[in-house]
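B., you asked whether I could sanity-check this one before it goes into the benchmark set. Here's the sequence:
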Amino acid sequence: MKFNRRTHTNGELRFKDAGKTVTLNGWVNSRRDLGGLIFITLRDRYGITQIVFEPEGDKSLYEAAKKLRNEFVVSVEGVVRTRPEDMVNSAMETGEIEVIAEKLVILNEAETTPFPISDKTEASEELRLKYRYLDLRRKEMQNNLLLRHKMYQIVRKYFDSKNFVEVETPVLMKSTPEGARDYLVPSRIHKGKFYALPQSPQTYKQLLMVAGMDRYFQITKCFRDEDLRADRQPEFTQIDVEMSFVDTEDVFEIVEELMKILFKEIKDYDIELPLKRLPYNEAMEKYGSDKPDLRFGMEIVNLNEAVKNSEFRVFKDSSESGIVGGLLAKGCAGYSRSKLDGLTKFVKELGAGGLVWMKVKEGALESPVAKFLSDEEKEKILSAMNAENDDLILIVSGNKNKSLNILGALRLEMAKRMELIKPDTKPSLLWVTDFPLLEWDEETNRYYAMHHPFTSPRVEDLDLLESDPGKVKARAYDLVLNGNEIAGGSIRIHSSDVQHKMFNALGISKDEAEEKFGFLMNAFKFGAPPHGGIAFGFDRMAMLFADKSSIRDMIAFPKTTSALSLMDNSPSNVDEAQLKELHIKIAD
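And here's what the prediction gave me:
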């Protein structure tokens, strides 16, 4: 089918183009037949232009225009004219002009789409994912991908300017434990053996430092077979960064400059440097989270001292062996009993034994537990919480770590209910530092690396690695934006001896370490420089810059929360012949 190459895009024509003969290609976005004139709007990713078909002209052209329907693919040739002043459409970038059609070629007809191609859609996410190629025609989704593209280019340009080298690392690699389940790929040639898809290029980027590459980055795909949620996908994109002969400050400097550029280029916002730094312990005790959202206050208050002599058993026991923590909800003393019951249900679903609430009315505390507290204890609670009339105090008590996590979740819930975060609220970007190197798991009765097994302990804590591993702090850091971790990294272990000590603390035997990480340990024997780096969760970062709540909106072809692709029905069954070639049998 013959058609002319376009001369302009559908977002390009303006007042200055009046009188030009142009050719436009695209999709019919809308059609109006006024009984005389026929109007269509023609859409491509650049914008929308109005086309007019007049009955006084070519009759066959006018009849062809009657057949047009939404999403037909067409090529139109015509003359640009200005619209009358009272007909200018200020909502369209091309709203000053329209094109009087002189030629029309219908390149492809279209069936009625399962949902309208418009910015605002009531279609379910499942339907949108099934017809993702239609969903991506919507301007909102195209803007998401264009923003992502712009971020890609900024990142590449920045790291190139800083002498980083982009190196591709393998997608088929050795299975190594890095905290989540690997996706395994069976080898046809090597019977019974498997590759793994990389959870991250961690070992490879360390090997590149051993190889003397000095500064490496890569925008790369990573894969983790784990339970999903709004900000997780089985395959995701990471900005991977590694540097030699550096310490924490060098990493911070590189990252902060990149974030300043991204915020300016994408959001036209100037962030202040250096970024705030918050030690892990302080983050947990004040905000109940290792990725705190500091766009609002409402810090957790430790009430142990205020209630340490209380006869109220719940407070007494918790103040001795755990924590009694409170949150102050300003002006919320008017909360109804049903709202308070809802908050109690919220914390119980997170594992709390219950929620103690106290309303401040005329300088006194109103609460179901008030009768169990002395006047002195009430005064101490009011003072510690800095509470005033009409405020609401919410208290959770019990095991310290568990209670802090629950209070952290409750803090975010109250911020949502109280609408504390406004659209123009200043973004919260900070470093969380001084993480524990290891965390103890009660079920398996062993330590696990809080970040990964190649994270370096603080030099001053090296002796504790064998005697008291739980007290060792890591040279690790997370970058947090608006309560979301967008990057995490560390200074790495570059000594074989220290790495073996780390494996011992993790309960990884010498033989297991040799089997899984021998290639890295051997590399260290030939002179490994001190090195460190960071990895950004690119999908999540793009989601936040686009002011979205799900990374699926920022990925062209994402999976559902159960790791399904509704569009092409993957994962799917394969032929028995394929399984036989791979030496695999499916067990019932």
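One thing to flag: Residues 52 and 100 are 5 Å apart (CA to CA). Otherwise nothing jumped out at me.
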